Amino acid sequence: MSLTMEEQAKQVSVGSVNKVPMVKYTNVMKSFGDLEVLHGIDLEMQAGEKIALIGPSGSGKTTIGRMLMTLEEPTSGTIEVEGEHLWHVEKKGRLVRASEAHLHQMRTKIGMVFQHFNLFPHMKVLGNVTEAPRKVLGLSKEEANDRAIEMLRKVGLADKLDVYPAKLSGGQKQRVAIARALVMRPKVMVFDEVTSALDPELVGEVLAVIKEIAEEGEMAMMLITHEMDFAREVADRVIFGAEGHIVEQGPPEQIFENPQSERLQSFLKRIR
Ligand code: ADP
């Protein structure tokens, strides 16, 4: 079958020159009513890349993550995952999204862990982790159990399969939530301030699990965090956002040791 010139050009650029990013935001704006919280975000993540989103509260970091998880719709702009549209919203409101079936398939590439765990309280730990693989991926009970146990082992909770969430510490709950997201084998995971609701002595165990997952290397990770030491250790690139803009980005050493913008300098001064 012969290809059109356009198709050939696409194949060349995909195959050799330009790698298709895992995630790409182009001129993404988001308003809640009259409040515009993102004013045109451009952001790319490569396969396996770990980025940390830092910045003052209310600057729009969570909203960036939630749009990727399809929990919020952008007001305008485009978000692509592996070169395919997740959202495409034209400026004057005409929304073009992927079809439901396609969106469903795209969503399986993305996982998210939230500040407040969001576990199902009426299900035991194993049930919490097997629910999505069974319902969304259609795995058999046995397959889902095998996968779930493997993930619970990874987060150090293989001995808690038959326990209800209410009996777990905050750190353990959050580790279940991480296993629940991992079990879907996403290509990109959003960790949204996953330690903010924890007692300080429980923060370390959760960060250690995330660090271990990061070191495995395969998954792209978006870490929305106030833990600067953690961002520095785990992220390949740190992105500083303020007031709905990306102000500065770069390798952790540059962002933390040699911040260029006054906005980032004053942010770092305040939190140190
Ligand atoms: P960050 O994660 O940087 O703290 P967020 O993305 O949570 O910022 O919030 C950005 C702004 O959007 C805040 O002013 C917040 O109050 C507002 N916001 C977030 N979600 C909603 C919502 N569902 N309805 C109205 N306002 C919202």
TrEMBL record:
Domain ABC transporter per the UniProt entry, residue ranges: 23-268
Main location: membrane
UniProt keyword list: Amino-acid transport, ATP-binding, Cell membrane, Membrane, Nucleotide-binding, Transport
Topology term for the membrane: Peripheral membrane protein
CC per GO annotation: plasma membrane
Family annotation (CDD domains): ABC_HisP_GlnQ
Parts forming coiled coils: none
Single GO molecular function: ATP hydrolysis activity
Pfam families: ABC_tran (PF00005)
Compartmental location: Cell membrane
Family affiliation: Belongs to the ABC transporter superfamily.
UniProt protein name: Ectoine/hydroxyectoine ABC transporter ATP-binding protein EhuA
